């Protein structure tokens, strides 16, 4: 299980990104994290690029 320290903005959560993900092994956990970050990038690209 992995949880982001900083929550996603509301619009990103509404788009389906989850702050906490779970998987059976490290590879799948990394893939789950990458999927959530991808949703965030697609939803609010200007927010993430500014950081």
Describe the fold and architecture.
This protein has 51 residues and is mostly helical. It has three helices and two strands; from the N terminus they run βαβαα. A two-stranded antiparallel sheet has the order 1-2.
Keywords:
51 residues; mainly alpha; 3 helices; 55% helix
Number of helices: 3
* Record field, number of beta strands: 2
Question: β content, as a range?
Answer: 5-15%
List low-pLDDT spans. Answer: none
For the largest beta sheet, what order do the strands appear in spatially? 1-2
**CA-based shape:** globular
Assign the structural class, choosing from mainly alpha, mainly beta, alpha/beta, alpha+beta, or little secondary structure: mainly alpha
Major β-sheet annotation: 2 strands, antiparallel
What radius of gyration results from the CA coordinates? Answer: 11 Å
The proportion of residues forming helix, as a percent range, comes to 40-55%
| Average pLDDT level | 88
In whole angstroms, how far apart are the ends? 25 Å
Order of SSEs = EHEHH
What's the SSE blueprint?
Elements: E1 2-3, H1 10-14, E2 20-21, H2 26-43, H3 45-49
Antiparallel strand pairs: 1-2
What does this entry show, briefly?
The chain is mainly α and 51 residues long. 55% of the residues lie in helices and 8% in strands.
């Amino acid at each position: 299980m992995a949880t982001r320290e900083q929550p996603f903005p509301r619009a990103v959560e509404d788009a389906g990104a989850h702050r906490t993900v779970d998987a059976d092994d490290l590879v799948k956990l990394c893939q789950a994290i990458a999927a959530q970050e991808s949703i965030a990038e697609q939803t609010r690209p200007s927010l993430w690029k500014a950081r």
